[in-house]
């Protein structure tokens, strides 16, 4: 058990550093955009577009990343055959998606719910989605091979390239357009959304090129294996779709539900402030990258290692609470990173961070249905959360705006976490250290209250809602 925990800690450190570094560098783009974009409405367009990105990639990978881990770890399966079968399947469906999306570009554009979303924005997004989906399976195989350094290097380079293109378009080009107007006649500072998408497109293309060694393998396609993988993975598609919608549905629906005159402007404020809370997402994602392969590998070796799972969840809660308190303690400084027109949205930060902590705990608890091959329960739980999300947004966004989005996420993730715990104890009992967890939560709550008393001007009104 000790060796397994050390392996988890080591891989979490590597994946964590790269994930946190990459997301932090990417996070820095948000305050940058608040200063270089023409208005908050353009930020709203960016937030709306990228909320659909996460959902679409989950659909296009249809749970096969987790399926790859599961079947590659089976003693009677060839890992390379599992990988190439998965890769061929994903490549076929991805190219089909791109073709159909281009053919129906204008109808798809109307789904976004705002005239501010232009068809060429959606076209750029479609290509980005295709490139990101094609990269997903090679990345998953790197994780299976326990090659975190290569994984981390490519991911960080992707973010660095994205930032470099953003700096080129928003800082270098305005200066060059003045110095060399003939050569830079094409540049228009008002097209900020275009330049953000183009930067993403170039970075995604280069990332796929960097993954080309993982694509140069001997391909074998096994239809019988694919069928078994789909039976296992498709319930995870529902799980993934519902999970992503729980986190992004607010930004998708906001243009349709908000009664504000400047809907996209309000969404822009919400998007920028939401990014401040992304450090909790950084941690949960980094933990997830190492946690999921670790679970299946340990289950293959010993068939049961419940104490290790319990300890991993305990440490997750402790560190998650620490991250929450650290961000809240310095929120009065962090707020100055956002342009003043966006700072009113910082009231959502503690609510969203707590919601993301709940979701991270829920993910750790979800191992019971993965290890027992009852992945349908993951779909059921996510659908429960999705119902809360849909109802909360529809009922309260028209009156309370983006504060309703934040509180809805809080309660949706809380419900999923609690229900998953009780179902897990019935189907795959694990003795979690609830007393310690409760103790740490109480201590963190008192410390948070002290922070809010000291910095009562931050998010004060929002927390009373």
Question: What report would you give on this structure?
Answer:
With about 475 residues, this protein is mostly helical. The chain has one domain (about 1-465). The protein is built from 21 helices and no strands. The protein has helices at about 1-25, 30-35, 40-60, 65-70, 80-105, 105-110, 120-145, 150-180, 190-210, 210-215, 225-255, 265-275, 280-300, 305-330, 330-335, 350-365, 365-370, 375-400, 400-425, 435-455, 460-465. Helix 7 (about 120-145) runs parallel beside helix 9, helix 13 runs antiparallel to helix 14 and helix 16 packs parallel to helix 19 (about 400-425). The longest helix is centred in the middle third of the chain and has 35 residues, at about 225-255. The chain is globular. Residues about 455-465 have low confidence and may be disordered.
In short:
The protein is mostly helical and 465 residues long.
- How many DSSP H or I helices? 21
- Poorly predicted ranges (pLDDT <50, ≥5 residues)? 457-465
For the residues shown, what is the average pLDDT?
A: 85
Rounded Rg: 22 Å
Q: What share of residues is helical?
A: over 70%
In N-to-C order, the SSE pattern is HHHHHHHHHHHHHHHHHHHHH
Structural class: mainly alpha
In terms of DSSP E residues, the strand content is: under 5%
Outline:
globular
Q: How many strands in all?
A: 0
Distance N to C terminus: 46 Å
Number of domains: 1
Q: Can you summarize the main beta sheet?
A: none
């Amino acid at each position: 058990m000790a060796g397994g925990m050390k392996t988890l800690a080591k891989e979490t450190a590597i994946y964590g550093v790269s994930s946190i570094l990459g997301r932090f560098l990417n996070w820095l783009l948000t305050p940058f955009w608040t200063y270089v974009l023409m208005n908050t409405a353009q930020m709203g367009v960016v937030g709306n577009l990228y909320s659909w990105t996460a959902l679409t990639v989950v659909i296009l990978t249809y749970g096969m990343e987790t399926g790859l881990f599961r079947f590659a770890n089976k003693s009677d399966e060839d890992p390379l055959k599992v990988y190439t079968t998965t890769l061929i399947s994903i490549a076929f469906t991805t190219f089909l998606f791109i073709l159909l999306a281009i053919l129906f570009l204008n109808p798809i554009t109307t789904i976004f719910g705002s005239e501010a979303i232009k068809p060429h924005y959606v076209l750029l997004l479609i290509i980005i989605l295709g490139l990101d989906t094609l990269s997903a399976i090679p990345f998953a195989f790197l994780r299976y091979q326990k090659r975190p350094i290569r994984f981390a290097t490519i991911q960080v380079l992707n973010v660095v390239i994205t930032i470099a293109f953003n700096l080129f378009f928003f800082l270098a080009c305005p200066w060059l357009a003045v110095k060399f107007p003939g050569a830079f006649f094409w540049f228009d500072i008002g097209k900020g959304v275009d330049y953000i998408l183009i930067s993403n497109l170039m970075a995604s293309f280069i990332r796929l090129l960097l993954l080309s060694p993982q694509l140069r393998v001997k391909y074998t396609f096994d239809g019988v294996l694919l069928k078994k993988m789909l039976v296992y993975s498709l319930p995870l598609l529902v799980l993934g779709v519902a999970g992503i919608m729980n986190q992004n549905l607010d930004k998708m629906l906001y243009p349709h539900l908000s009664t504000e005159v400047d809907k996209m402007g309000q969404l822009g404020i919400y998007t920028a402030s939401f990014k401040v809370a992304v450090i909790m997402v950084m941690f949960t994602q980094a933990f997830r990258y190492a946690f999921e392969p670790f679970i299946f590998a340990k289950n293959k070796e010993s068939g049961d290692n419940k104490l290790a799972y319990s300890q991993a969840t305990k440490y997750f809660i402790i560190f998650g609470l620490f991250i929450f308190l650290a961000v809240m303690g310095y929120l009065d400084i962090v707020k100055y990173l956002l342009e003043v027109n966006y700072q009113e949205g910082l009231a959502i930060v503690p609510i969203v961070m707590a919601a993301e902590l709940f979701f991270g705990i829920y993910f750790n608890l979800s191992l019971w249905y993965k290890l027992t091959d009852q992945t349908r329960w993951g779909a059921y739980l996510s659908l429960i959360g999705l119902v809360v999300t849909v109802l909360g947004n529809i009922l309260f966004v028209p009156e309370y705006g983006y504060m309703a989005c934040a509180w809805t996420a809080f309660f949706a993730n809380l419900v999923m976490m609690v229900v998953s715990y009780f179902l897990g104890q019935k189907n795959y009992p694990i003795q979690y250290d609830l007393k310690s967890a409760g103790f740490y939560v109480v201590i963190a709550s008192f410390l948070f209250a002290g922070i809010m008393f000291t910095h009562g001007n931050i998010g004060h009104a929002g927390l009373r809602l």
